[in-house]
Write a structure and sequence with these properties.
Elements (H helix, E strand, L loop, with lengths): L2 H8 L4 H8 L15 E4 L7 H19 L8 E4 L2 H11 L3 E4 L1 H7 L6 E7 L5 E2 L1 E5 L14 E4 L5 H8 L6 H4 L1 E4 L3 H9 L5 E5 H6 L10 E5 L3 E2 L3 E3 L5 H12 L5 H10 L3 E4 L6 H9 L29
Parallel strand pairs: 1-2, 1-3, 7-8, 7-9
Antiparallel strand pairs: 3-12, 4-12, 4-13, 5-11, 6-9, 6-10
Length: 316
């Protein structure tokens, strides 16, 4: 195996992959109609429904066994695109969903989604986003106007513009922005001169140190903390089922089999959440203010705790 291949396998891509692996699903192509069914929509995630199916089935079995639910009680499917996830929720009316923050901000009110859990990384329930460059000429985000930005997260430009950049940049007009299939391909593009910048989440940023060219890269921007992706209940879910599912997920960290699943998911557990957990980002998203180019050297800091912006442990 080449060093590059090892880098690909070791690079954590944060909640995107977590959602692919964490879906508590069983039969991906079956029709949905049950109040315990679950739909996952993570537009920035790689992979397909078929690739995640075996792991999903094993997790479904764990949840059903823990809750003493009959086999097949919880069915579900993972969708790697916003359009597919949106259509499925409209069509199938599941009881539960795990969605990206961007998806929740766009459609949470429409579908009456109620957050009740969120994943934990270490001891934190927040995410951050970093803009990483190689060329020392780039000192702030303002220097990247019209430059090539690559990221798998660019599939949700409205979320990035309004929440990550807090309404100060419209990513689609400020940058020459193109979606990358994976974070690693985006990082390689910057390292090899195929792009000027890459947008990473905290897990991706932390993993940079494993790459042979990490010393050439540095962060020139880090976002404010953003809550991790919500586990939500929809109107079709029974209150009792929501309480039971929450108890099962919260208890995984204390159960040997549950910890194995959490380890595979690259998270450390779940914690309770509520609509108030997401109130600040909801307000930012609804405000929708855009002022491309308003970020200045004073408002585009390097990574906190690391004055040079070099890859390191992100301050979740």
């Amino acid at each position: 195996m080449t060093l590059e291949s090892r880098s690909v396998s070791s690079l954590r891509i944060g909640m995107a992959v977590v959602l692919v692996l964490a879906v508590f699903l069983g039969m991906p192509f079956s029709a949905f109609s049950g109040p315990r069914d679950l739909i996952i929509c993570s537009p920035a995630s790689p992979g397909t429904t078929e690739q995640a199916e075996n792991f999903m089935k094993s997790v479904t079995t764990y949840i059903e066994t823990t809750l003493s639910w009959p086999e097949g009680t919880m069915r579900g499917i993972y969708y790697p695109s916003e359009a597919e996830g949106l259509a499925a929720i409209e069509r199938e009316k599941p009881g539960f969903a795990i969605v990206s923050v961007g998806f929740f901000l766009k459609y949470g009110e429409r579908f009456q989604m109620t957050p009740f859990l969120q994943p934990v990384y270490g001891n934190a329930t927040v995410e951050r986003y970093y803009v990483v460059v190689k060329d020392p000429a780039f000192e702030t985000i303002a220097d990247l106007r019209g430059k090539r930005l690559r990221s798998n997260h660019l599939v949700e430009p409205l979320f990035l513009s309004r929440v990550v950049f807090r309404g100060k940049i419209d990513v689609e007009s400020f940058f020459d922005a193109k979606v990358s299939r994976t974070s690693f391909s985006a990082i390689k593009a910057v390292a090899r001169g195929g792009a000027e910048a890459v947008l990473l989440n905290a897990s991706q940023y932390d993993a940079l140190g494993q790459l042979p060219f990490a010393s050439d890269l540095r962060a020139i921007f880090v976002s404010e903390p953003i809550p991790t992706a919500p586990v939500v209940a929809l109107p079709n879910a029974a209150a009792e089922d929501r309480e039971k599912l929450a108890a099962a997920l919260l208890g995984m960290k204390d159960d040997p089999e549950g910890r194995k699943i959490l380890h595979t998911m690259s998270i450390d557990g779940f914690r309770p959440a509520s609509p108030s957990t997401y109130m600040e980002v909801i307000q930012l998203f609804q405000a929708g203010e855009k002022d491309a180019g308003a970020i200045t050297p004073e408002t585009a800091p390097t990574a906190p705790g690391n004055d040079t912006g070099k890859p390191g442990t992100s301050p979740r």
